Sequence to fold (217 residues):
Amino acid sequence: MAGRNPDKEGRRQAILQAALQVFARKGYEPATLEAVAREAGLAKGTLYLYFKNKEDLYFHTAVHVLESLQDSILEKSRRCSGALDRLRATALGQFDFFVRHRDTLQMLAAFSHPGLARLHKRLLAAMMEKWAGHLQRITGLVEEGQRAGAIRPDIPPGHIALAFTGMASQVAQVLVGFPLAKSAATASGPQAGQPRESAEVMADTMMRILVEGVMQR
Fold:
């Protein structure tokens, strides 16, 4: 089977990157295909060779973000050995991705826009598929740690995985100053004018909080 045309795939990726910038900057409703085309340096008609309309473009941009996040997490995790080190690397991969690509959270926030009502089911299915795969990988790492005696065996691995992913998601939002986490950042994060903690520091802190409660004693 012939592979994808590299020029065509490169143009598609350029459109997705441009759409990410436009959706993050403007929100869903004000964003236009004309603005995306300008951002990508392409004619508006070129976008229709790849995507049906703005809804379709938003969907594929959201999936692109989720796949890029997954790649960042796996890339960090593959460098490590041992369940606890790979759990830390997983958190770091997530934090590092959102710190380097702060606009992705803003773009994903448009998911709840009424204009995307027809896409909600499709988007939710795609997000849940990625989430389920991520949760399964975390659960597998916890089980590995339990078998190695590094994590308490009396706590269901799925429960630990849920605690880990929930904590990581909230910390990622605080790290980038996402509006939904504004109150948490104000209460416990750095004050205005002070540098934010690095992704490395936050990954270490989160692992200390989590692991000291689940490590075999």
